[in-house]
Amino acid sequence: MAKSASMSRQEMLAEIERLRAELALCRERGSGEAACGEAMEMEIKQLREARENAGVISVIVENSPAVIFRRLADDTHRLVYISENLSQWGYSAADFLSGRKGFDDLLHPEDRKRVIDEIEQCRLEAVEEYTQEYRIITAAGEVRWVSDETSVVTDEAGRRIYNQGVLVDVTVSRRAREALEASEFKFRRTIESAAEGYLLLGADLTIREVNDAYCRMLGYEREDLLGKRPHDFATLEYQRFLESNRERLRKEKGRRFEGSMVHRDGHVVPVLINANTLRDEDGGFLGHVAFVADLTEQKKALNLAAEVQKGLLPRKAPRIPGLDVAGRSVPSELTGGDYFDYFEETDPAGQALSVAVGDISGHGVDAALLMTTARGFLRMRAGQPGSPGQIVTEMNRHLAADLYGSGRFMTLFFLRIEAGGARAQWVRAGHDPALIYCPVHDTFTALGADAGLPLGVLRETSYGEESGDILPGQIIAIGTDGIWEARNPEGGMFGKERFKTVLRERAGDSAREIVDAVIEAVREHTGGAKLEDDVTLVVIKYGGTP
């Protein structure tokens, strides 16, 4: 009865009727044929059970979206069975079983040759199970995609007699896949045609994907970069930055920083990196993505601007008996908004020195331009008679007109010190107070009880000066907040206590050495990272040798 498993329902009914007729004939021949009758009754019972099972299966099949078929394994591909749920595509199973329609009629004309060739190839290679995906045309002329999972039925001699399988409509998933592929294609085309470099990094920071722009930027072929790390092509300074800030950068959701890479021919390429970590809906890691912009041209323009701005700062310290003076400004970008200047004057009472340290809100090119404007006016006004309070008041009126409505302002600390008389006058315009360190008593004093408003906020603001005596050996330090607000990779500020510690420890050095020591301490604190704000410091040692 094993053959009953491959019978159709109609074939089972015909077989049952044949066996019933044979059973009746056995009974007419007498009891000697009882064994034959019993065997036939058992076979009929088995067939009945198979018919009932086939009925259940038929109900399941006809109510499922999967179409079951069997076709001859020859060149005709004639269907010998196809489930009634073929009606979902507007066809009748009877049309195919009668021969009025064939398997080829279902196939989309553009897919027909491919499908038939694949079937023939599977036959030649004796493949017993295979899957195809192709288009069919419904009775209404609609195009549908189906997945065809076919297996081969052979006879006792091993000859192929049928191909049977299941057709499932996969149009929705196929179109979704095509839409996704189209979206991915557009994304890849966008990435490949982008002027910016693109990198996809693994968890170990090796390069998995890279676009042409990045290859051109460094002068390498794609194969030269895949499997390597960006670190391998970085300058030594940039390598140190990446190593010292690795954990901080990993934790940040979005990373934006500058670096410098080494081109294949050896020249340095300044770059701006915008990086992020990709994760799936469950938070699983997908990769690190980085977009890299070549800043070579921008750096050339900024370098020129930086050279111009650098030329506006004092080229050398004033040489006044009894005063050792040094100043330095380090912009966070190539250009900055910090400012310092010296103004020497000689009157009947002796020589005097005025020092200005200012900070334009923000930094970069726009802040540098405003600093240049402020410098020009202050230099002009400081050369005329007037007290420090009068000079700063008039400077405020000038800047208020230029800064009105911009949201910008300038803080300033203006100090005038008489070299011979040890008398100092100062004005705070929103700036941090200067510090006086006395090595004899190991004490710090802040200059400027009244903070005053920054310049450019209110045009009619009037500024008055404070005054006091300076003792031999004392050190005056006037800085900008970029010093004590500089942060390390963990986010900790440099702070004024560290600033004071450096002043205390280096009090016996020259003013120049003290300035350099403070700036080096800030650099070490930040781990060599790009400064977040401009850093400026002027140090005056009273009683020192210039």
From TrEMBL:
Keyword Hydrolase part of the UniProt annotation: yes
Coiled coil: 2-29
InterPro entries: Bact_Sigma-Reg (IPR052016), PAC (IPR001610), PAS (IPR000014), PAS-assoc_C (IPR000700), PAS-like_dom_sf (IPR035965), PAS_4 (IPR013656), PAS_fold_3 (IPR013655), PPM-type-like_dom_sf (IPR036457)
Keywords: Coiled coil, Hydrolase
Stretches assigned to the PAC domain: 130-182, 255-307
Coiled coil recorded as keyword: yes
Gene3D superfamilies: PAS domain (3.30.450.20), PPM-type phosphatase domain (3.60.40.10)
Domain of life from the UniProt record: Bacteria
PROSITE patterns cross-referenced by the UniProt entry: PAC, PAS
Stated name of the protein: SpoIIE family protein phosphatase
